[in-house]
Write a structure and sequence with these properties.
Blueprint lengths: L1 H14 L7 H15 L7 H15 L6 H4 L3 H11 L6 H13 L1 H6 L1 H24 L3 H22 L2 H15 L6
Helix pairs in contact: 1-2, 1-3, 2-3, 2-5, 3-6, 5-8, 6-9, 8-9, 8-10
Length: 182
């Protein structure tokens, strides 16, 4: 049911709630989508996948919705930072990248969310590596390697953006230092 609601709300946000007096509905539905993106239960993966699909669509600069999202970007970054510890979906990492690409101006004006997200991604990569090292089953090792790969690719795609490297290079290098031990 929540999966269908994500599809429905994504459509509503994109097509219907465009007027200033509809801002509360826009915020409510957006909040629902962001909350559903954090669902990690095994039997509810379709909910988060549909939420990611809707959010990626909304973050697309060509769709014309992203300007209406600006007042909520700080909250979205904050929620996504909370989801990093348990996110398993490849869609999560793609959506996180889309968020950092589309809202570069927000990130440049408010560096803390980006720095926090990179720190959390590094911590998650280290945790996945420790699990990988202690695991004996091949399937589980593959799972951890896939997660590490997604995380490292996300970090790489974020930190290689010229607009971030120029401004945050020193901080980013310090945050990434633990990864070079492995």
């Amino acid at each position: 049911m929540q999966s269908r609601l994500c599809l429905f709300f994504g459509f509503y946000i994109n097509n219907l709630y465009k007027l200033p007096e509809q801002q509360e509905f826009f915020k409510l539905y957006l909040s629902f989508l962001v909350k559903c993106a954090g669902v990690t239960e095994e039997d509810a993966q379709s909910v988060s996948e549909q939420a990611f699909h809707a959010l990626n669509f909304l973050f697309d600069p060509l769709k014309g919705v992203n300007e209406r999202l600006i007042p909520f970007i700080g909250d979205i970054f904050e929620k996504f930072a909370l989801y990093i510890k348990e996110a398993e979906s490849e869609q999560f990492f793609e959506t996180l990248l889309s968020l950092t690409r589309t809202y570069q101006e927000f990130v440049r004006a408010n560096q803390q969310p980006l720095i926090e997200i990179i720190k959390l991604l590094v911590e998650r990569a280290e945790g996945e590596y420790e699990e990988y090292r202690t695991e004996d089953m091949v399937e589980a090792k593959t799972h951890y390697l896939n997660n590490i790969s997604r995380i490292i690719n996300t970090i790489r795609n974020v930190v290689e953006r010229p607009e971030y490297v120029a401004e945050y290079q020193e901080q980013i290098e310090q945050i990434l230092t633990p990864l070079f031990r492995h």
